[in-house]
Design the sequence.
């Protein structure tokens, strides 16, 4: 339907208002004559609004007369009418065309050049270089080859790690990324061992290796020295001082022992209870009931009540109650497997907490020993491969004794 | 006159029979109105013979089989040619007088 609407818009049509007594007859006659009528809306009893093509207007006029109706053109819609109106306003059309052309022409030039991402280099240096290679305000956009310009800029400023040239409308955007140089620590930095380990692999990035693969090292031992005593190019050169850096893979063994008892003492109360009360009155003490505990094995509990507090530390009237509860003690032998499992779990969690990040577990060993006293000693050893290199700044002035 | 009438009627019946026998579409050969209704918003009627009444509430169209009355609200004739008529608006009822 929309397509038909568009077609009639292109062809151009008029909206007419028809008044008369017999509008149905008017419509029928129009149709019978082969005139297209569309969008007919009955407004009220006496009038309707309809759309008709421009070329049908003369025949419509005749039909109006025949059917005794009166018609009036309300609106002219469509491309032909707009074209006619524009033809009358040449200036407007010329202005519009001129505007479009100007917009097109002006937008094909570069108007602005912008540099982003410079920190150490100045934007002017980059702009100057870009201008040298044909990127400056006023040049044609088409004359710029972004990839080529970016490559040239990068080639001429060695400090740049990356450069790109984007054309965004009339703006040229030069984006650069400067190289980030590694931060140098003042003074000599050695690489030392973080743990006691067996060195398996060494990658020295800078500095002089002091140990070699296969050697065992202790915690804190220097692995890569920050002093190069004999730099390349001859013995007469003075020693160089560098920040030693490297990756040193080593095997590290970590052990943890847990000693757990295999027996457990169980204390059970027999419900036999004896109480000894001592009354204290002023400085005097009376004992009520048995003086000592009446049981062979017992647990005691003592409570003091001050009934009437005295002036000093001593109570004026107080009672001490000691309760003796008879108990029976027996020992229970625990299941060895359970105790072992408990020890293993404890050792594992203790060891895992000590493992550094990135450590690769190579091996796990366990050792169980039973002692005479009914205890179990469980030892777990975890062998890992990890980077044991740690950078350590050396105090200046200390003479190196190594190679 | 009467003779002609009956003659026409007889040929009409014969035509109808033939169309039935050969299962041909009736609207094509017999000038029968064909009504296409899209939801309750558009009605297209082919083979009409003129508008009898047209208001926004009711459109009556003459066909070879009698009148077709469309009732509703805000009815408008969106397109009309010698054979076809399209009515748009809220259609509430369609009456067929055969």
Sequence:
């Amino acid at each position: 339907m929309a397509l038909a609407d568009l077609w009639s818009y292109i062809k151009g049509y008029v909206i007419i208002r028809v008044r008369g007594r017999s509008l149905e007859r008017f419509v029928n006659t129009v149709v019978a004559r082969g005139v297209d009528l569309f969008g007919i809306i009955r407004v009220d009893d006496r009038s309707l609004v309809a759309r008709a093509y421009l070329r049908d207007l003369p025949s419509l006029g005749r039909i109006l007369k025949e059917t005794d109706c009166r018609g009036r053109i309300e609106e002219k819609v469509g491309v032909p009418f707009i074209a006619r109106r524009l033809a009358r306003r040449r200036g407007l059309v010329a202005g519009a065309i001129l505007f479009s052309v100007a917009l097109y022409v002006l937008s094909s030039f570069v108007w602005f050049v912008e540099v982003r991402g410079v920190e150490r280099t100045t934007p002017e240096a980059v702009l100057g270089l870009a201008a040298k290679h044909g990127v400056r305000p006023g040049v044609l956009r088409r004359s710029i080859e972004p990839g080529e310009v970016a490559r040239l800029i990068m080639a001429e400023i060695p400090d740049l790690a990356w450069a790109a040239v984007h054309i965004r409308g009339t703006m040229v955007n030069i984006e650069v990324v400067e190289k980030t140089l590694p931060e140098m620590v003042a003074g000599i930095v050695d690489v030392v061992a973080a743990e006691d380990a067996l060195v398996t692999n060494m990658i020295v990035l800078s500095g002089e290796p002091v140990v070699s693969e296969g050697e065992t090292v202790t915690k804190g031992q220097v692995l890569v020295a920050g002093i190069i005593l004999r730099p390349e190019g001859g013995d007469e050169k003075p020693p160089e001082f560098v920040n030693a850096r490297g990756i040193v893979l080593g095997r590290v063994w970590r052990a943890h022992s847990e000693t757990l008892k295999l027996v457990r003492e169980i204390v059970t109360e027999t419900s036999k209870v004896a109480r000894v009360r001592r009354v204290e009155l002023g400085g005097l003490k009376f004992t009520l009931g048995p003086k000592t505990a009446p049981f062979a094995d017992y647990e005691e509990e003592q409570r003091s009540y001050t009934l009437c507090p005295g002036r000093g530390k001593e109570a004026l009237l107080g009672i001490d109650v000691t309760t003796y509860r008879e108990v029976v003690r027996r020992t229970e032998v625990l299941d060895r497997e359970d105790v072992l499992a408990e020890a293993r779990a404890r050792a594992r969690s203790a060891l895992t907490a000590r493992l550094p990040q990135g450590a690769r577990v190579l091996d796990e060993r366990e050792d169980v020993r039973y002692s005479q006293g009914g205890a179990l000693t469980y030892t777990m050893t975890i062998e890992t491969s990890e980077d044991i290199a740690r950078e350590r700044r050396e105090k200046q002035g200390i003479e190196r004794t190594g190679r | 006159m009467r003779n002609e009438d009956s003659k026409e009627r007889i040929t009409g019946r014969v035509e109808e029979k033939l169309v039935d026998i050969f299962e041909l579409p009736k609207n094509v050969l017999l000038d029968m109105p064909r009504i296409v209704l899209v939801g309750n918003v558009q009605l297209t009627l082919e083979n009409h013979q003129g508008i009898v009444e047209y208001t926004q509430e009711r459109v009556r169209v003459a066909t070879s089989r009698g009148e077709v009355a469309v009732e509703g609200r805000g009815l408008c004739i969106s397109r009309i040619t010698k054979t076809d008529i399209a009515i748009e608006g809220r259609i509430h009822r369609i009456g067929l007088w055969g």
Remarks:
- Helices of chain A lie at 2-11, 23-32, 57-66, 79-88, 90-106, 123-132, 146-156, 336-354.
- Chain A is about 25% helix and 45% strand.
- Chain A touches chain B through 17 residues (CB under 8 Å).
- The CA atoms of residues 92 and 98 of chain A lie 10 Å apart.
